[in-house]
């Protein structure tokens, strides 16, 4: 098969069948889960098909033009790194869907469940194979949205709706849009959205690093990645996302979706790494997050909550290691990070599946209510122990080796940074390791060891069927296999993936036993301290609870709820000030802004308002008309009963007609007088139907205030215009010499107007007629209600 | 005579309006559904003709240079006609039991003619005439349910602000005419320096901005919009948000840009601030709304803020982005309002005297009661938020990336932050529709509503997935402006 | 000899009075009157510019506006009347259902 076709199929088969799922569900009923799992398996096998090419060190790059006018193509770019994540997405997706056939009750809305999972799987595979940043962003947001839908799957639980919304706001909203901005900035610098182009072009990378926008671009892209991978302050969405069905948590929120951020960090690694900003941002965030999240994990009593915090902490390991690669040996951190990414996906998914099994069988996830289940659930116990010990970093499991590599990389970076980092960074690493060890042990101890908690547990608890155990067992087997024979994942998965990041071929040697080294010493210290911390486990958890009660504001969730939880109320407070209702309040800002925006440029233009000298030697009859006009205008605006006010308005209209005669436009004057008569008749007709006075009862103080404001406004407008009209006189003054000539010209103009109306402006005249017609229609419609009159 | 043919779409609409009016006199109320079909047929013919004129890339100037035919005018005509098509299809149901059906459709068609005249106008007189034609028709349309005080209040507020703005606009135009000595728009452009160098010109420009800004619902000229959109019948809100608002933009594109290009950099800042305030205020206030129509209205204010970024950036790509945004927004918003109309219909089926049919509580569990409407409304809302694979994303993308390329990174960042805020209130409606339980049973959407909504849905998705031709035409239109 | 600026100032005064009316008063019919004032101010401007610059366009514009103003007044008053039929008053600030 053509390889690009296989890739495209792997992306779009899940999408295609996701659309079909609701219809298929009517045929195959609750077996829809097996059907969906099959799609996952097909995608996985398609990827297997292309993997030899990638292992050989090739990349698949293929693109078609999509929106050429803005330089966006639709393309696929497959290298080791993207293939690794795609394998996780399809492989674990298959296992999860198989597991779900038993886990999800048949009463649930299964079609919707599998539809969302398939959509997510397709988006995730599409995201990693995207060859340009816009396409990547599109699939990126799709994974956030499907995650939102899956977290909120149990719609009746307010908690799950809360969690869903939180994840959407932080990952799709903040993170996604920050990423988009970053992508746009990157495009502004490089002029392309195409990822391989940027990766391949050394001069572009130099350009980026020297550009003014470098820091902003890196920061925004990093925010996107951190929000998705629950790093730094964005970690708060992940614990709430645990309201999703457990298989979903295993799939999205430990194995795949949260890895998207790390994938992005790996993808942009060649572009941004090697700078101090990269080290501080990526490694710094990782180091802080791993300790804080590891510490907070101790307090959790819900095992899923504990696993959520542990996921945050473990992702922070990977983040930190990708950040390390600044100086001496860039490949060291990248290899460790990539390896840990793979390992974490396996052991954490195992643990989540175990939690699902335990919750399913024992009907609780509260670690205080569980205990002593080892005899009743022996197989589950063994699998769980493998997963937890691997997370704790115990040999010979895969977690051990990646933790060793993490320590090695930490020592290495510390050494290259010099004092005081040569001690600080390894110490932070060990502290994180100790915390991890403690809570890993807690999982085994809390569920399976100790005394059986008869009070809270059902009478009979037993291992589940093979359908639920199988996927967990397969993952546990991989954990052991990769631990004992590290060269298998190294040569088939990690090497291609790492060479996708550092962009050169690499050969990695790894074995379980690598001699007595500093790392081994650190591991021993970790185990020792871990056991000590574990003894104090409950004391620490209690202290955290106490502290939290005393200082409720010392928490990011508190601020999130303050800002977003009360967003509606807060917004109401703001909007109350802007939207009051009465129409007059609406007019006020319009006028005010108009005035201000006029004043502003005048000030900017630094023109002086100079007193104006008038030529008052005007013929008195014109002056009389002017004064009359102003008087009638004032009367129209203030007379308290209708009829005199209407008379004033029409008088004004007629006087303006006279003005037109001054201006030698007699035909206009006639029109004005006719139209004014019509308007007056309309006004009189209307006021004959309504009360005869304006009935304006305004409190005295408000009245004075209003009058004051209005007078100010009106006089300001007047002054501005007075000033403004100064400018107009200049260009036309020269024209006034020709006044006589012009009047002669205009005398002939009576006909000109008519000619213009029917010929030159015929279309406008037609429009005018339409307007009048339309006004008649509108009035008719508004007033005449055929037979509906009261 | 060839000139006349270029106006065939307008002529067809006018003839349709007359036919509808006259036929309405002879039809019984129960047969008046036919009038809706006649209008729809007329609009479809007008769309076909407009498209053929556009695709032929005809450029012409008519009636002594008072009207022009170019890609810009044709693109906008298509926007208006498409919205008119959606609205009139939906209205077949909305006015099905009304005696005054013929007046409704005639007014609708006349309003569209007015908007088309504005988009083709090349002269202030023609432009003002079209503006008033559309304005007067929509005032009457908003007040169509004359027994409902809410509708009348909406109509009154719309009218008053509209009339005041017309007065501002006209006063501004009178100064423009005085300063440049012509009402011809290219003539004004040629004399733009006269306008800009003089304080009276500044006064004129501010008044024009106020006059157009009210149609565009830019802050602080936006206040009528929430009240009117909420109070008006939903299909008319769709018309106002989808078409009437865009008329403000095409007028501003034609007139204000001419002045802006000549103006200095401080003005660019003023417009940027205006855009930022508009989008932020719209988004923040939208957060608190419990009425979905009111929320959509504020979202519409916010979108106006995004679109007006095109005035700030003023590069060909940015203008193309603005025009593309206008096109997308027409479909997204009109579709959303039609979906709200369907929900209103559903509520009224359950309870004849129900009030506030657009309250968010009525959207509880809509995915169970009306899955198609719920899905379509979700897509419209996500599109408005700018989620990928929808028209909203593509247009935001083009607009924002052009802003960044022009070096206005801060403006783009604020706009993107605003998009994040907007996601919050759109998600709230989706939450109500998909995550909240409900008691009511399944209800089938009336066919006309459903057809209109699905047409809008298809448009939103097609622009989102295959935007290339739309971007092409938006760029063609933008090129007209910047020559 | 009376100059162009006199007409412009006259129109500015009328426009300002119209604005003043808009902002203090809250009765529908009064509002209509104030809008009339503002439109009339614009018309004076148009005709004055037209006369002082030998250009007929302004007069034509004014002619259109005069008719448009009448149409606008008709529609506006019709809306007010329709409200009055339901509410028995046209005090604008009391018509205030639409908020929040």
Describe what this molecule looks like in 3D:
Chain C: Its EC number is 1.6.5.11. Chain C: InterPro entries: F420H2_dehydrogenase_subunit, NADH_UbQ_OxRdtase_chain4L/K, NUOK/Mnh_C1-like. Chain C: Its main location: membrane. Chain C: Keywords: Membrane, Oxidoreductase, Transmembrane, Transmembrane helix, Transport. The complex is a heterotrimer of chains A (790), B (483) and C (100). By secondary structure, chain A is mainly alpha-helical. Among the domains of chain A are: 583-738, Four Helix Bundle (Hemerythrin (Met), subunit A), CATH 1.20.120; 748-790. Helix content of chain A is 75%, strand content 2%. Chain A is built from 32 helices and two strands. By secondary structure, chain B is mainly α. Chain B has 22 helices and two strands. Chain B has helices spanning 2-6, 8-26, 33-55, 71-94, 101-120, 124-142, 149-180, 185-190, 192-196, 199-216, 224-231, 234-262, 265-287, 292-307, 309-313, 316-350, 366-369, 371-385, 391-405, 409-435, 447-465, 468-482, and strands spanning 60-62, 67-69. Chain B has a two-stranded antiparallel ribbon with strand order 1-2. In chain B, helix 7 packs across helix 11 (224-231). Chain C is mainly alpha-helical. Helix content of chain C is 77%, strand content 0%. Chain C is built from three helices and no strands. Chain C is elongated, with a radius of gyration of 17 Å. The chains are: A mainly alpha (790), B mainly alpha (483), C mainly alpha (100). Chains in contact: A-B, A-C, B-C. At the A-B interface, helix 5, helix 6, helix 24, helix 25 and helix 29 of A face helix 5, helix 6, helix 7, helix 10 and helix 11 of B.
Name of the level-1 CATH class of one domain in chain A: Mainly Alpha
Major sheet characteristics of chain A: 2 strands, antiparallel
Q: Architecture of one domain in chain A, CATH level 2?
A: Up-down Bundle
How many H/I helical runs of chain C? Answer: 3
**What's the arrangement of strands in the largest beta sheet of chain A?**
1-2
Weakly predicted, low-confidence segments of chain A: 605-612, 728-744, 746-750, 786-790
**Number of separate strands of chain A:** 2
Say what oligomer this is.
heterotrimer
CATH 2nd-level architecture of chain C = Orthogonal Bundle
- Approximate shape of chain A: elongated
Distance between the termini of chain C: 57 Å
**Helix content range of chain C:** over 70%
CATH fold-type name of one domain in chain A: Four Helix Bundle (Hemerythrin (Met), subunit A)
The number of helical segments of chain A is 32
- The overall pLDDT of chain A, averaged over residues, is 82
What letter string, H or E per element, gives the SSE order of chain C? Answer: HHH
Helix content of chain A: over 70%
Mind telling me the CATH class of chain C?
Mainly Alpha
Share of β-strand residues of chain A = under 5%
What is the global morphology of chain C?
A: elongated
Organism (chain C): Methanosalsum natronophilum
Pfam family, one (chain C): Oxidored_q2
Membrane topology (chain C): Multi-pass membrane protein
Protein name (chain C): NADH-quinone oxidoreductase subunit NuoK
């Amino acid at each position: 098969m053509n390889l690009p076709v296989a890739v495209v199929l792997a992306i779009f088969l899940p999408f295609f069948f996701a659309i079909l799922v609701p219809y298929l569900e009517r045929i195959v009923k609750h077996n829809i889960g097996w059907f969906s799992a099959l799609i996952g398996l097909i995608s996985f096998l398609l990827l297997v098909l292309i993997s030899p090419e990638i292992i050989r060190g090739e990349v698949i790059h293929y693109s078609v033009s999509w929106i050429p006018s803005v330089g966006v193509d639709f393309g696929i770019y497959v290298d080791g790194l993207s293939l690794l994540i795609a394998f996780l997405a399809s492989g674990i997706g298959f296992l999860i869907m198989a597991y779900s056939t038993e886990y999800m009750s048949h009463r649930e809305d299964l079609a919707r469940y599998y539809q969302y999972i398939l959509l997510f799987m397709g988006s995730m595979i599409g995201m990693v194979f995207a060859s340009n940043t816009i396409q990547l962003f599109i699939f990126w947001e799709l994974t956030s949205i499907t995650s939102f839908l899956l977290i909120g799957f149990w719609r009746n639980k307010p908690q799950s709706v809360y969690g869903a919304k939180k994840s959407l706001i932080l990952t799709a909203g903040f993170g996604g849009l920050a990423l988009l901005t970053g992508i746009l900035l990157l495009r502004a610098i490089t002029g392309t959205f195409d990822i391989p182009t940027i990766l391949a072009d050394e001069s572009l990378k130099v350009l980026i690093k020297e550009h003014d926008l470098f820091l902003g671009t890196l920061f925004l892209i990093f925010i996107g990645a951190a929000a998705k991978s629950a790093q730094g302050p964005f970690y708060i969405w992940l614990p709430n996302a645990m309201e999703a069905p457990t298989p979903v948590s295993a799939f999205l929120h430990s194995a795949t979706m949260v890895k998207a951020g790390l994938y992005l960090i790996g993808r942009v690694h060649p572009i941004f790494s090697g700078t101090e900003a990269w080290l501080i941002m990526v490694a710094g965030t990782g180091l802080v997050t791993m300790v804080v999240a590891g510490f907070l994990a101790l307090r959790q009593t819900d095992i899923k909550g504990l696993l959520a915090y542990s996921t945050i902490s473990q992702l922070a390991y990977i983040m930190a290691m990708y950040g390390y690669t600044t100086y001496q040996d860039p490949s060291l951190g990248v290899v460790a990070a990539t390896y840990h990414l793979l390992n974490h996906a396996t052991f954490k998914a195992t643990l989540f599946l175990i939690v699902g099994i335990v919750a399913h069988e024992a009907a609780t996830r509260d670690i205080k209510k569980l205990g002593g289940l080892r005899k009743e659930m022996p197989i589950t116990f063994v699998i769980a122990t493998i997963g937890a010990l691997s997370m704790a970093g115990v040999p010979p499991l895969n977690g051990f080796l990646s933790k060793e590599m993490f320590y090695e990389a930490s020592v290495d970076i510390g050494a290259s940074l010099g004092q005081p980092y040569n001690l600080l960074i390894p110490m932070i690493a060990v502290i994180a390791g100790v915390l991890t060890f403690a809570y890993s042990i807690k999982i085994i101890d809390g569920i399976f060891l100790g005394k059986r908690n008869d009070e809270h547990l059902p009478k009979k608890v037993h291992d589940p069927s093979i359908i639920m155990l199988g996927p967990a067992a397969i993952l546990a087997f991989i954990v052991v296999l990769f631990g004992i024979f590290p060269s298998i994942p190294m040569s088939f998965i990690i090497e291609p993936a790492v060479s996708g990041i550092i962009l050169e071929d690499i050969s990695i040697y790894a074995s379980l036993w690598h001699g007595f080294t500093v790392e081994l010493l650190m591991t021993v210290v970790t185990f020792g301290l871990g056991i000590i911390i574990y003894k104090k486990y409950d004391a620490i958890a209690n202290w955290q609870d106490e502290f939290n009660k005393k200082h409720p504001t010392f928490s990011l969730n508190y601020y999130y709820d303050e800002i977003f939880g009360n967003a509606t109320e807060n917004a109401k407070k703001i909007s109350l000030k802007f939207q009051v209702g009465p129409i007059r309040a609406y007019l006020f800002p319009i006028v005010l802004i108009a005035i201000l925006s006029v004043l502003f440029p005048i000030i900017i233009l630094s023109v002086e308002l100079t007193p104006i000298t008038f030529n008052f030697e005007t013929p008195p009859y014109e002056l009389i008309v002017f004064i009359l006009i102003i008087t009638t205008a004032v009367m129209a605006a203030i007379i308290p009963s209708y009829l005199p006010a209407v008379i004033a308005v029409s008088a004004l209209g007629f006087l303006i007609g006279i003005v037109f005669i001054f201006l030698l436009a007699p035909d206009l004057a006639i029109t004005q007088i006719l139209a004014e008569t019509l308007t007056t008749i309309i006004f009189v007709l209307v006021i004959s139907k309504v009360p005869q006075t304006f009935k304006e009862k305004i409190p005295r103080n408000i009245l004075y205030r209003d009058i004051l404001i209005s007078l100010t406004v009106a006089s300001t407008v007047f002054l501005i215009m007075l000033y403004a009209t100064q400018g107009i006189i200049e260009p036309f003054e020269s024209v006034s010499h020709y006044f006589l000539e012009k009047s002669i010209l205009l005398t002939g103009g009576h006909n000109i107007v008519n000619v213009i109306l029917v010929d030159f402006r015929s279309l406008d005249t037609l429009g005018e007629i339409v307007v009048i017609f339309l006004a008649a229609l509108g009035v008719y419609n508004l007033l005449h209600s055929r037979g509906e009159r009261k | 005579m060839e000139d006349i043919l270029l106006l065939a779409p307008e002529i067809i609409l006018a003839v349709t309006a007359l036919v509808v009016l006259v036929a309405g006199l002879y039809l019984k109320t129960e047969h008046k559904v036919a009038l809706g079909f006649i209008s729809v047929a007329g609009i479809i013919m007008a769309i076909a003709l407009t498209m053929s004129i556009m695709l032929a890339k005809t450029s012409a100037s008519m009636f002594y240079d008072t009207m022009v035919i170019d890609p810009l005018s044709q693109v906008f005509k298509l926007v208006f006609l498409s919205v008119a098509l959606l609205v009139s299809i939906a209205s077949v149901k909305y006015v099905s039991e009304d005696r005054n059906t013929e007046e409704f459709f005639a007014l609708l068609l006349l309003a569209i003619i007015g908007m088309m005249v504005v988009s083709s106008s090349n002269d202030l007189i023609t432009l003002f005439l079209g503006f008033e034609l559309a304005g007067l028709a929509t005032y009457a349309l908003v007040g169509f349910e004359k027994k409902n005080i809410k509708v009348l209040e909406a109509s009154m507020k719309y009218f008053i602000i509209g009339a005041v703005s017309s007065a501002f606009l006209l006063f501004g135009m009178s100064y423009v005419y005085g300063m440049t000595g012509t009402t011809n728009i290219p003539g004004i452009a040629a004399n733009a320096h006269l306008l800009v160098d003089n304080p009276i010109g500044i006064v004129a420009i501010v008044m024009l901005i106020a006059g157009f800004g009210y149609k565009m619902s830019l802050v602080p000229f936006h206040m009528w919009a929430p009240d009117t959109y909420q109070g008006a019948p939903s299909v008319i809100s769709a018309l106002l948000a989808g078409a009437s608002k865009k008329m403000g933009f095409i007028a501003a594109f034609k007139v204000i840009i001419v002045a802006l290009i000549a103006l200095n950099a401080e003005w660019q800042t003023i417009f940027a601030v205006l855009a930022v305030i508009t989008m932020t205020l719209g988004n923040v206030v939208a957060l608190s709304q419990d009425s979905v129509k009111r929320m959509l209205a504020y979202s519409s204010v916010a979108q106006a803020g995004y679109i007006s970024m095109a005035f700030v950036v003023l590069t060909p790509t940015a203008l193309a982005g603005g025009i593309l945004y206008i096109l997308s927004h027409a479909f997204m918003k009109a579709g959303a309002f039609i979906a709200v109309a369907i929900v209103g219909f559903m509520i009224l089926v359950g309870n004849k005297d129900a009030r506030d049919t657009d309250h968010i509580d009525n959207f509880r569990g809509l995915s169970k009661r009306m899955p198609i409407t719920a899905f379509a409304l979700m897509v419209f809302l996500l599109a408005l938020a700018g989620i990928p694979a929808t028209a909203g994303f593509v247009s935001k993308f083009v607009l924002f990336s052009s802003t960044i390329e022009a070096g206005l990174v801060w403006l783009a960042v604020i706009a993107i932050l605003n998009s994040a805020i907007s996601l919050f209130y759109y998600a709230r409606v989706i939450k109500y529709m998909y995550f909240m339980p409900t008691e009511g049973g399944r209800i089938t959407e009336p066919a006309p509503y459903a057809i209109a909504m699905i047409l809008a849905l298809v448009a939103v998705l097609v622009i989102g997935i295959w935007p290339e031709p739309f971007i092409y035409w938006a760029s063609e239109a933008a090129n007209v402006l910047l020559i | 000899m009376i100059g162009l600026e006199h007409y412009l100032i006259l129109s500015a005064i009328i426009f300002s009075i119209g604005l003043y009316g808009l902002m203090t008063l809250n009765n529908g019919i009064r509002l209509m009157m104030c809008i009339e004032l503002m439109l009339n101010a614009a018309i004076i401007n148009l005709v004055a510019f037209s006369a002082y610059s030998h250009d007929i366009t302004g007069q034509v514009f004014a002619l259109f506006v005069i008719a448009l103003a009448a149409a606008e007044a008709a529609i506006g008053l019709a809306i007010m009347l329709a409200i009055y039929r339901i509410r028995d008053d046209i005090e604008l600030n009391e018509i205030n259902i639409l908020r929040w």
